[in-house]
Design goal:
The chain is mainly alpha-helical. It has a single domain, classed as Orthogonal Bundle (Hypothetical protein af1432). The protein has 14 helices and no strands. α4 packs across α11 and α12 packs across α14. The model has no long low-confidence stretch (mean pLDDT about 95).
């Protein structure tokens, strides 16, 4: 694939046609605009993510595809070149999904112990800012006696209220899951729409805040994407 063509393709189109290899190529093209030291950090983050999620899948695709799309979207559509934010984007599910492997500890430890140790390992490998960004978008241990989706939405609203830069990662993650809800099975689409639809107004409000570190063009783009996600959720749940 010619680089110029790859740079113009929507991310899910690259996924459908070229898979993980195409997304890796697109990410490499995006990295050419970064200083060499930042390129090295992001390449290291990508390979760590690839190791941790090597056996993970999202129904129809390797999990790494999702992480690549989240990071690429932040670069290309949000205009963000903050290497710590992008490192955290690539690793945003690492602490939640693979804390024991990341920290090199037995999985028998408590959730809190594993989370703290995994965050500390990210701080050691990269820096404390990257690690705390990942912590902000890491789901807590849920109370089994309460609705899981409601607890998720409460956590997102609370953590993003405190951490403006984490909003950048979460809205890209949400866009990939929300707008991309049509790229999965019907059963998964229904569960995703049920989980994510009530969060749309919260994300709209958070994106629109003055302290959200995005340009007006990026905010407008995200709000359009949230509208599209809502349309797709409605088609799935109300149709």
């Amino acid at each position: 694939m010619a680089p110029r063509m790859l740079l113009t393709m929507p991310l899910h189109a690259i996924t459908e046609v070229y898979g993980e290899a195409g997304l890796r190529d697109r990410f490499a093209l995006e990295l050419q605009q970064f200083p060499p030291a930042d390129q090295v950090q992001l390449e290291e983050a990508l390979e760590l993510a690839a190791q941790l999620h090597a056996d993970d899948r999202r129904i129809r695709e390797p999990y790494l595809n999702h992480l690549l799309r989240v990071a690429i979207r932040i670069i290309r559509y949000y205009g963000i070149h903050d290497v710590d934010v992008l490192t955290a984007a690539l690793l945003h599910d690492a602490v939640e999904d693979h804390p024991a492997e990341l920290a090199g500890l037995p999985p028998t430890l408590s959730h809190a112990q594993l989370t703290d140790a995994a965050v500390a390992e990210l701080a050691r490998r990269f820096n404390s800012r990257t690690a705390e960004l990942v912590r902000s978008v890491t789901n807590p241990e849920y109370d089994p006696d309460r609705d899981r989706n409601e607890q998720y939405r409460m956590h997102v609203a609370d953590s993003l209220d405190r951490d403006p830069w984490a909003r950048v990662i979460k809205v890209s993650d949400f866009t990939d899951n929300g707008v991309g809800v049509i790229h999965t099975t019907l059963e998964k689409a229904y569960s995703a729409a049920t989980k994510y639809r009530p969060l749309v107004p919260t994300l709209r409000e958070l994106v629109g805040r003055p302290d959200t570190p995005l340009s007006m063009a990026a905010k407008d783009h995200i709000l359009d994407q949230l509208d599209l996600a809502e349309e797709r959720f409605a088609a799935i749940l109300d149709g």
